[in-house]
Amino acid sequence: MTGDSAVRKKILLTCILFLFWVIFTATLALYDLVLGAVSSALVAVLTVALLGRALDPRITPMVLLRLPVFMVRLIWEIVKANYDVAKIILNPRLPIDPRIVEYRTYLPDDLPRTVFSDSITLTPGTVTVELTGDMLNVHCLCPYHQEGLAGLERLVAWLFGVKKEGPARGAQETAFAAEGGAGSLTAGRPERGGEV
Amino acid sequence: MAKDIVAGALCCVGTFFFLLGTTGLLRMPDVFTRLHPSTKCDTLGACSIIIGMAVHSGWSWELPKLVIIACFLLLSSATCGHAIGRSALRRDIPYWRKKTGEVEGGDGS
Hints:
The complex is a heterodimer.
Chain A: H1 3-25, H2 30-51, H3 61-90, E1 99-104, H4 110-122, E2 126-132, E3 135-140, H5 149-160, E4 170-173, H6 175-178, H7 183-187
Helix pairs in contact in A: 1-2, 3-5, 4-5
Chain B: H1 2-27, H2 31-57, H3 62-90, E1 95-96, E2 103-104
Antiparallel strand pairs in B: 1-2
Helix pairs in contact in B: 1-2, 2-3
């Protein structure tokens, strides 16, 4: 870690801590602001000195600025999916066809992958049940729910400024699920990835 | 006055989604499918109620606190849903398939 980036990390952490301080103390009196600024800076310096790192290196000011936009777009996706799942629940025939699909993501590090799988779980109709390396096992309520995964992945990639590289992605049904004699189900879908 | 009406309407929407989520929880056949309605409760149900409360409180210091509560609620519900699903998968709990209409073998073994 170079000295410059360490200082920048401390400043970023101080800003975040100070924001929380202002929200929780709920006042803009000068005394409280000064006290908050001093203690935030102290905590940031001590954190970097003791732990060697302040925040995940993926958290940059750009990510924090994009976060509200990301939240709004995610909530819009959630609302759309909620409407869809509400229709399924209220349908007397309960038209569900659940399955577990594998999804290979191109997102690089732990944090983007965690955000991606959390977004999938928050969206009704899809739940991430396993995440190992770049492979996600997603339980889908209906087959068409897995089509929303790529859009969510693009959204997370946009949030962290990640570019897609290589064709190694796409959803496919697991052998685990296909054991139930569901081999014909995968045949109907066009393979998007170059692998397999 | 208008504020109260909007806040009340949002809380009603949230309650309605909680009702839907509970209905789904009771109707779904197995543990994996039951996760889906429960995430619906947490996301749209609780968020609508929180937005309703935010409208009710207006521009005050409660607003950012409510936003933070919503963020933590979303984070914890996603983590919780993922944890339940993963432990069910690791224990080879069989999951429901449409084809047979019955619960069938987890890992085939």
